[in-house]
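Fresh eyes needed here. Kindly weigh in on this sequence plus structure tokens:
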Amino acid sequence: MNKLQSMQVLLEVVDAGNFSAAARRLGLSAVMVGKHVRQLEELLGMRLLERSTRSQRLTQAGKVYCETARGVLNQIKLAENTIESMHANPRGMIRISAPHSVGATWIAPLVTRYLRLYPAVKIELILSNAYVNLIDDQFDLVVRVGALPDSELVARRLPPYQMVICGAPDYLLQRGTPQVPRDLERHSCLGHLSVYGCIQWPLHNADGYCWTGDGCFASNDSHALRQAALGGAGLILQPELSVINDLSTGRLVEVLRDHRPTPLQVHLLYLPARKEHKGFSNLVDFILAQTHKTGKYD
């Protein structure tokens, strides 16, 4: 027995005035309409309708039951309309975790554009280079750089994460421009303390050479290293997206372009069930569309 359907049938009988009219409105047979009403009466142990060959009227119990049932069905309809509205107009909170460089330089401007399209959505962007767990740390979406272990998470590929070596024009004028990887040994290389676990630059097409050394300055923050490089302190190995504006304006100059480190994989990760949330699915689709149409981070 479907109690909600039986409630609807009973209310239609009351509104239509008889079983036959209710049956026509509902697209059921009059026999099936009568069955629904009888099932409710048997369930409740009380008659809800007094029926004769010419008329019908609600019993006192029927009046109370119909009033309550109408309220229940209205609340259900309200709940359905609310969910439909959420599909049409995404809303709610979405928590995102991303590495500092990707999050500050790329994710933050991107979600700003998204929020202009869907102002009822709220986004929390947490920047950290630490590994986070979607469930334990209560994130909806994670941007992860590097190879992925096998898991049940949904992984959507983004453009690769390219690192570049660059320095300020004045620094290169004073110290010269390195032509081959081993030239780095006579340069001041500014290291990132959390990348690769120690200060080293694994270069591509360098016959196995990987610069490892002690520069005059090291930091665990990409922005601090960029500022040091802009001030002429030495060369930096940084994500291209973090220094793209400096390279385009000439504040920094890329060197050893043919020896750029192998690009790292980048993925969006989320739990399979999250795709059912309209605002979340719109955000994922928006991010993928913005990056894949150019093949890079804009």
User: Anything to note?
Assistant: Residues 88 and 278 are 8 Å apart (CA to CA). The domain at 163-259 is CATH 3.40.190.10 (D-Maltodextrin-Binding Protein; domain 2).
